[in-house]
Amino acid sequence: METGLAGKVALVAAASKGLGRRMRERRWGRVIHVTSLVVKQPIDGLMLSTSIRAAVTGFSRTLANEVAADRITVNTILPGFMNTERVVELNQATAAREGVPVEEVERRFREQIPMRRVGEPRELAALATFLASEGASYITGQSIAVDGGWIRSLL
Q: In this structure, which topology does domain 2-82+119-146 adopt according to CATH?
C-alpha cells in the first residue's frame, strides 16, 4: 500500500519543492495521475487496489484546488480494460483458475464493455496528451474514464 499512495504523495511533495516551484513561478503546469476505473465502479476482489487508487484520486482532486490559481491543472485518468500485459496475465490466471480457454475469459470481458473491445494504450495516451496541452487549461480536478463505456454511473 505504501508504494502506491506514499510513492505518489512523495513524488508530488518533491515536485512541489522543485519542479512545483518552477510551475508556480511560470504560472503554468500539468499534473496527471493514472489510477483506474475502480475508483468509480469497484470490482470484487480488488479491495486493496481500489482503496489505494481512490486515495490517490482524492489526493489529486484536493491538490487541484490548491494549485489552480497558479494555472496548474491536476487531473486523473481512469483506464478501463486495456490491451496490456497485465490484462493478458489476469485473463490467463482467470482461465487457469476456472478451467476455461483464455478466449472465453476475453469474450466475457468484451461483453461487459459497451464498445465490445478492450482499449489500446494509444487511446489513453491521446487523453494524457490533451490534458497536458494548453487546450486543457480550464480542465482541472477531473477524473476521466477511458473505458469504452464500462462505467455505468451518471457522474
A: Rossmann fold (3.40.50)
Strand, coil or helix: 73: strand
DSSP letter for 45, please.
T
Q: Is the pLDDT of residue 1 over 50?
A: no
Place of cell 493478458: 88
The answer to whether 24 and 67 have CB atoms below 8 angstroms apart is: yes
Residue 90 three-state SS: helix
Which residue in the block uniquely carries the three cell numbers 483464455?
102
Domain positions in the chain: 2-82+119-146
- Reported as a single tens digit per residue, the pLDDT across 57-82 is 998 899 899 999 999 999 999 999 99
Q: The pTM is what?
A: 0.86
Name, in order, each residue with C-beta under 8 angstroms of 44's C-beta and a sequence gap of 6 or more: none
